[in-house]
UniProtKB/TrEMBL annotation:
This is Multidrug-efflux transporter. It comes from the Bacteria. Keywords: Antiport, Cell membrane, Ion transport, Membrane, Transmembrane, Transmembrane helix, Transport. The lineage of its organism: Bacteria, Pseudomonadati, Pseudomonadota, Gammaproteobacteria, Oceanospirillales. InterPro entries: MATE_fam (IPR002528), MATE_MdtK (IPR050222), MdtK-like (IPR048279). NCBIfam families: matE (TIGR00797). It is found in: Cell inner membrane.
């Protein structure tokens, strides 16, 4: 036991040191959504519902872009571990072209979101405001995509602190910009939820410019000459990024679109249900940032070990990291259970919204651990560049078990009767639990095979 304890902290201490600034950056960026939700909710339930419904389109599309570009992180980590620094600049250039390509479906989804809202029978006032919110947000899309490319370069190089600092500064820009544009201060018109979109787009551009300056003038990145010249799109480079990254993006998109589809399905149940669901989802997402950051750090650490041709170390790092995620998720579930009645009061003063949100958050306690395990298993597998089977697993668990089972519990002829919005959260418990089992099995298979292949060579 003493030997295990020493090895546990030997590998997990550097993992935590990398994960903490990643966590800070994730919290700061997620904090923009939290700030939007709180400040719009203080204006009116309609504005809160519009932000919630708009976020149900914005979130999955951005995560598709973010997830695909996350291929940069393990590719940079492998190149760093193998001392192949000449690969960095071409990788960043081709990743930027991939990001530009992915903006096309995102813009299309934003500008034609009204069609989706009408199909899902979202209340007209909420649907119109949500569409305007997305169009305002679209001005920040190019900045957001390029920020993700630079962020993955820094994180794959074990340099997460500048991303943290810039993300916090972006949040600090977002808060006063929201205040001015939502409530119509300093001579500006009162834009409500639409003001959230413009304020967030402004913050995205600020963050991207700041991180661009950091990569340009930081001594560590200067030899890479990222911006000295720029290469045109090259199929081999784009293919490598899409081969690793597109399954990651689709996996994350599938998970996020699960919540999106739930939000759209319940759009016809009224403002209180939509708002309560959004408050619960927003708070649980905030706590989910802790295991998510550990998973992102695992991608880097596993990638470094594999780049250095140490598969046994990579396997050990992966499973010790998963064990750390288990402990962290248990703590998060406890916080969620105890704090939910007080936290929901920050989001809305409406008693019905508070009551529903509290009930949903306490349901989320039951999938907190499995969610932490599955995201860290997936993070370790990204370090192995094993992403396509992960995509298939998540597609089955999230959409067939999670969404299908959730719809059956919410509206179907099940033995307990229609459960409404709570039924979808029962589906989440089942889907995420199944994902954790299958992804841990896949991590064991992949890491063992990689280790055996190295021994046989």
């Amino acid at each position: 036991m003493k030997s295990f304890h020493q090895e546990f902290w030997l590998h997990n201490r550097p993992l935590m040191l990398l994960a903490l600034p990643l966590l800070g950056a994730q919290l700061a960026q997620t904090g923009m959504g939290v700030v939007d939700t709180i400040m719009a909710g203080r204006l009116s339930p309609v504005d809160l519902a519009a932000v919630a419904v708009g976020a149900s389109i914005f979130g999955p599309m951005m995560l598709l872009i973010f997830g695909t570009l996350m291929a940069v992180t393990p590719l940079v980590a492998h190149a760093r571990g193998g001392q192949r620094h000449h690969e960095m600049a071409p990788l960043i250039h081709q990743a930027s072209w991939v990001g530009a390509l992915l903006l096309i479906p995102a813009w299309f989804a934003f500008y034609y979101s009204q069609v989706v809202f009408d199909f899902m029978k979202v209340e007209p006032d909420v649907a119109n405001l949500a569409s305007a919110y997305l169009r305002a947000m679209s001005w920040g899309l190019p900045a957001l995509a390029f920020f993700q490319v630079l962020r993955c370069l820094c994180e794959g190089s074990n340099q997460a602190r500048p991303v943290l600092l810039i993300s916090v500064l972006g949040l600090l820009i977002n808060i006063p910009a929201n205040y001015i544009l939502i409530y119509g201060k300093l001579g500006m018109p009162q834009l409500g939820a639409v003001g959230c979109g413009y304020a967030t787009a402004l913050s995205f551009w600020f963050m991207t410019i700041m991180l661009g300056f950091y990569v340009t003038f930081r001594a560590e990145y200067r030899p890479l000459a990222i911006f000295k010249s720029w290469s045109w799109p090259q199929w081999l480079g784009i293919k490598q990024i899409l081969w690793v990254g597109l399954p990651i993006g689709l996996s994350i998109f599938v998970e996020a679109s699960l919540f999106t589809t739930i939000a759209l399905f319940i759009g016809s149940l009224g403002e209180v249900v939509v708002s309560g669901h959004q408050v619960a989802f927003n708070f649980t997402t905030l706590l989910f940032m802790v295991p998510l950051s550990l998973g992102m750090a695992l991608t880097v650490k596993v990638g470094h070990a594999l780049g250095q041709q140490r598969p046994a170390t990579a396997r050990r790092v992966a499973f010790l990291g998963v064990e750390m995620a288990f402990l962290v998720s248990l703590l998060g579930a406890l916080v969620m259970w105890v704090a939910s009645p007080w936290v929901v009061q920050l989001y809305s003063s409406d008693q019905d919204v508070q009551q529903l949100a509290t009930a949903l958050i306490q349901l989320a306690v039951f999938y907190q651990v499995s969610d932490g395990l599955q995201v860290n298993a997936a993070g370790a597998l990204r370090g192995y560049k094993d992403t396509r089977i992960v995509m298939l697993i998540t597609l089955f668990c999230y959409w067939v078990i999670g969404l299908g089972g959730g719809w059956w519990m919410a509206f179907g002829a099940n033995p307990w009767g229609p459960q409404g919005v709570q039924g979808f959260w029962y589906g989440l418990i089942a889907g995420l639990s199944a994902a954790s089992v299958f992804l841990l099995w896949r991590l064991n298979v992949t890491s063992r095979r990689t280790q055996l292949e190295a021994v046989s060579q």
